[in-house]
Design brief:
It is a single chain. By secondary structure, this protein is an all-alpha fold. The chain has one domain: Catalytic domain of cyclic nucleotide phosphodiesterase 4b2b (Orthogonal Bundle), CATH 1.10.1300. The protein is built from twelve helices and no strands. α3 packs parallel to α5 and α10 packs antiparallel against α12. The longest helix is centred in the last third of the chain and has 21 residues. It is globular and about 55 Å long.
Length: 305
């Protein structure tokens, strides 16, 4: 069915397997830094898995259905791909800072995790303050694991770039390289979630998180889904105006790593948006039946283009 092929980067790396994601990030880093030591990054990766799985002292298991471990790993891989794409395009961040950029991607949504003594609701109630809480977790982790204050400041600023209402040009970056890493993380966060094959089926969960978190002006679930189409238009402007158009670096990555001269993330998102628009125009009363990854296969007639 033309225009609704399976998302191709899912064929490159099986995103449901946490170790395959890590192995691909290792492979990407070796393309950029042939002598890269993966040990420190692996240690932090395992600790983040423990945190989300409820095995970190003082914290519960992640209970947000949209901002979950899968989203964090999607962001992590997207960040590695942008770093590689940047390297291909002549943007050098340096090995240590690239490492910190990836650590930032792993830590960027830790603010959704509830402490063990917080039994009310879910972590979604922290939606409006999750970045500040993520920065707090990051600061404590860094202090306990020998990171410098300069390392923390870089990662803190990267995390700030994931806020949709944050003015990137008002963040006090120490260097141009740091600013690029921040823009890469802000971009990886958006690309990772919107290109995921689970994106459409998880949108009702995101709506529920926003309701619990007190996000205003979103209407009912149907209104929220319709706004998602507009959100992609807003996001593209943010890529260009605020995030330095680093999303284009994805095409360099796929060309060099896989021999595919295309931006597979953008293609995946545009398929999602076309499909969602089609559903809301033709199946408004029962759209839930078709939001799954194979939803288009259940349609009584082919989508129009």
């Amino acid at each position: 069915m033309k225009g609704f092929e399976p998302i191709q980067f899912e064929h490159l790396v099986y995103m449901e397997n946490m170790q395959e994601v890590l192995a691909e990030v290792d492979q990407i880093l070796r393309l950029v830094f042939p002598d890269f030591d993966p040990g420190p990054l692996h240690g932090i990766y395992e600790n983040v898995l423990k945190l989300f799985e409820g095995q970190w002292p003082g914290y519960q298991k992640c209970n947000t259905q949209y901002h979950d471990l899968k989203h964090t790993l999607d962001c992590f891989l997207a960040m590695a791909r942008l770093i590689h794409g940047g390297s291909v395009d002549g943007i050098e961040t340096g090995e240590h800072k690239a490492h910190l950029g990836l650590v930032s991607s792993l830590m960027h949504d830790t603010g959704y995790i509830q402490p063990v003594n917080d039994m009310a609701g879910t972590g979604a109630k922290y939606t409006l303050v999750h970045i500040e809480r993520s920065i707090g977790f990051l600061e404590n982790y860094f202090a306990q694991n020998g990171f410098s204050r300069e390392d923390f400041y870089l990662c803190r600023n990267c995390l700030k770039c994931t806020g949709l209402d944050v003015k990137i040009d008002q963040i006090d970056f120490s260097s141009r390289e740091d600013e690029i890493l921040g823009k890469m993380l802000g971009t990886a966060d958006l690309l990772g979630q919107m290109a995921s094959p689970r994106y459409l089926e998880k949108l009702p969960a995101l709506f529920s998180e926003f309701i619990e978190g007190g996000v205003g002006g979103i209407g009912d679930e149907l209104d929220f889904l319709e706004h998602t189409i507009q959100f992609w238009e807003i996001t593209q402007k943010r890529f260009m105006m605020d995030l330095g158009h680093v999303d284009a670096l994805m095409q360099h990555h796929f060309r060099v790593r896989w021999g595919i001269d295309r931006n597979l993330y953008r293609e995946a998102i545009e398929r999602h948006i076309r499909y969602l628009d089609y559903l809301l125009k033709n199946f408004r009363t029962n759209y839930h039946e078709y939001l799954g990854r194979d939803g288009w296969m259940k349609l009584p007639f082919p989508p129009c283009h």
